[in-house]
Write a structure and sequence with these properties.
With about 270 residues, the protein is mainly beta. About 15% of the residues lie in helices and about 55% in strands. Strands 1-2-3-4-5-7-8-9 form an eight-stranded antiparallel β-barrel. This is Conserved hypothetical membrane protein.
Length: about 270
């Protein structure tokens, strides 16, 4: 029994010596990039008898590319590792503002040469976590995930609501979002690759890239069908069976890091 206790104590000491908390790690990060929206729509093509001009716009809904940007603060602990390659790792919260776009394109007529390109921009609060692995002196790989919480949106849909596949308001607050969408949050995962350039012992500028995948907003199809029906002056009609999306984002990361000591000073 004493041998087992001694082994446990030795293991605990080894673990704490391996992961000794060295510094607070604080990063300011600005991701800037493009997002490709994967639209997933299902419609009832037999329900357009009263509104035949709606069939082409709704049935031609398709994905698009749009711009995204965020301002994030990352705060956590940096653990020094006794490894010549993997110098340290940081466990951090990832919090801030994120402009999440949902690009939606469609054709206005059967010829398909009059395409409408529109984007719903959700203003969200980003809440998540990220684990960063610092390799060598100036490089880091980050694996993170969390949720974006929509608080409002803007929609650049300037077309008339008549014969329009999306008749929602051009601006929506939190209450309207809750009514129009079944989703309350936008889950995401991301990978970051960053290089750090120290300008002081514990201050660095960083540049890198990111790739992310988000599960977008899922429409409340009853509410959506109700609004489309009302805009076209017909009784409630089930045009949509479902309408939702996901997205793939790729871009650059610009930022600054505070707290983590330049590994070259520790060699």
């Amino acid at each position: 029994m004493r041998i087992i206790k001694n082994i446990i104590i030795i293991l605990i000491i080894k673990v704490f010596s391996l992961f000794a908390v060295d510094f607070i790690d604080f990063n300011l990060s600005i991701p800037i990039g493009g997002s490709y929206n994967f639209l997933n729509a299902s419609i009832n093509e037999n329900n357009f008898v009263q509104t035949p001009s709606l069939l082409i716009p709704i049935s031609s809904l398709k994905s698009g590319i749009s711009f995204e940007i965020g301002v994030l603060a990352q705060l956590g602990y940096n653990f020094k590792l006794e490894n010549s390659v993997l110098k340290s790792t940081s466990t951090m919260i990832d919090f801030g503002y994120y402009m999440y776009p949902m690009a939606i394109n469609y054709n206005q007529n059967i010829f398909g040469n009059d395409e409408v390109k529109s984007t719903i921009i959700f203003h969200t609060i980003n809440i998540g976590g990220i684990q960063k692995f610092y390799l060598g002196n100036n490089f880091a790989i980050g694996l993170g995930g969390g949720v974006k919480i929509p608080i409002s949106y803007t929609f650049d849909n300037i077309e008339s609501k008549l014969n329009n596949p999306l008749t929602q308001n051009n601006k929506g607050n939190l209450n309207y979002i809750k009514a129009l969408y079944d989703s309350r949050v936008i889950p995401y995962i991301k990978l970051t690759l960053e290089s750090f350039f120290f300008v002081h012992d514990n201050i660095a500028l960083n540049i890198g890239m990111y790739i992310s995948y988000s599960i977008g907003m899922n429409y409340n199809v009853y509410k959506l069908n109700e609004e489309v029906s009302s805009a076209n002056n017909v009784q409630y009609t089930e045009y949509y069976n479902k309408l939702n999306s996901s997205s793939l984002g790729v871009g650059v990361v610009l930022g600054a890091s505070f707290g983590r000591v330049n590994p070259k000073l520790q060699n």
